[in-house]
Specification:
By secondary structure, this protein is of the alpha/beta class. It contains 15 helices and 10 strands. Among the domains are: 3-60, 3-Layer(aba) Sandwich (DNA Methylphosphotriester Repair Domain), CATH 3.40.10.10; 166-233, Double Stranded RNA Binding Domain (2-Layer Sandwich); 250-321, Winged helix-like DNA-binding domain superfamily/Winged helix DNA-binding domain (Arc Repressor Mutant, subunit A, Orthogonal Bundle), CATH 1.10.10.10. The chain has a 4-stranded mixed β-sheet. A hairpin with a 4-residue loop joins β1 (20-23) and β2. InterPro entries: HTH_AraC (IPR018060), MethylDNA_cys_MeTrfase_AS (IPR001497), MethylDNA_cys_MeTrfase_DNA-bd (IPR014048), MethylDNA_cys_MeTrfase_DNAb (IPR036217), MGMT_N_sf (IPR036631), WH-like_DNA-bd_sf (IPR036388).
């Protein structure tokens, strides 16, 4: 057995000492006592000293990330825990719990717990259980609860998308931002497009994407979503938390969710993102999923750079990408 595998097995047995553990896709290092959620062996690297770890480009785990992992550990075991319950267990305030968790995951603890329920529901359905049985076993109290809470994760029904949005009504509006004009389009379930560009090009693109849908300009129907975008642009939030209604493959959704977990003001390479989703060899596919994103700022593909740190492509232009990144890092 190689030295790294021996150390990994010792880590699993809680029998590893005098070693620091680096997590490749986070570029942070832990002491054995700090590592709450054990990654795959290929995602770990072991160091003999702080100097060795930091010389390799790793940094100590931030306290907020450590808190986030403790929250996730508790929610994986007890998804019904409230924010107040988490705060009491961790000797933190409710505000500290929400702020730390949202910074590193792009979602609230409650949303994370609902996602765990959704994943259990999917697993039970794939094992052949009926929808009703799977629903209650997964912890949803009603079909309505499942539908409402999955809208941000499951995306548009394939049949609807494949029919060009037939029988759908899509409301849209345009508004100015510090980074240019944006068009926001929403269905009854959530945002289906948020893009930069000129009015003519953006409307033409929306019509091409949904040729059979009814498009109406209606700022009253998009107002809540617009306010979430503007709150981010005013620096009041670090993510744009809205329900989504876009079509994507399972792989694309996996990449888009990983993009939403990149902290505000930070960047990751395509290779790091591929490792983050457990597909370290799928770098090209990850780049393709980033390029297919039609939800600017909501799914922050602007936070992806090349391995050497230089800017990579961006659907809405490299200059705009640089402006957004510079603004986030201020």
């Amino acid at each position: 057995m190689s030295s790294d595998l021996q150390q990994y097995e010792a880590l699993r047995r809680h029998d590893l000492q005098d070693v620091l553990i680096g997590v490749r896709y986070l570029l942070v290092y832990y002491t054995p006592e700090q590592l709450r959620l054990l990654p795959s062996p290929e995602d770990l690297v072991f160091f003999r000293s702080v100097a060795e770890a930091e010389g390799a480009g790793y940094r100590p785990i931030p306290e907020s990330l450590h808190l986030t992992e403790r929250i996730a550990e508790l929610l994986l075991a007890e998804p019904e825990l409230t924010v107040q319950g988490l705060a009491e267990r961790l000797d933190q305030t409710a505000h500290q719990v929400i702020r730390a968790f949202k910074k590193h995951t792009g979602m609230t603890p409650k949303q994370f717990a609902q996602l765990q329920k959704l994943e259990r529901f999917r697993e039970m359905l794939s094992e052949g259980q009926s929808i009703t049985r799977s629903l209650y076993d997964a912890g949803f109290e009603s079909l309505r609860a499942l539908y409402e809470r999955s809208s941000g994760f499951l995306g548009m029904q394939p049949r609807v998308y494949q029919q060009g949005g037939k029988d759908m009504t899509i409301a849209y509006e345009t508004f100015e931002t510090p980074f240019g004009l944006m068009l926001l389009a929403v269905t009854d379930l959530g945002v289906c497009s948020l893009q930069f560009g000129t009015f003519e090009d953006l409307l033409a693109d929306l019509r091409q994407e949904y040729p059979k849908a009814t498009l109406i300009e209606d700022a009253s129907r998009t107002a809540l979503y617009r306010e979430a975008v503007l709150a981010y642009l005013r620096g009041e939030t670090q993510t744009v938390e809205v329900a989504l209604d876009v079509r994507g493959t399972d792989f694309q959704w996996k990449v888009w969710q990983a993009l939403r977990r990149i902290p505000f003001g930070e960047t990751r390479s395509y290779a790091q993102l591929a490792s983050l989703i457990g597909e370290p060899k799928a770098v090209r596919a990850v780049a393709g999923a980033c390029a297919s994103n039609r939800l600017a700022l909501i799914v922050p593909c602007h936070r992806i750079v090349r391995g050497d740190g230089s800017l990579s492509g961006y659907r809405w232009g490299p200059d705009r990408k640089r402006e957004i990144l510079d603004w986030e890092k201020r």
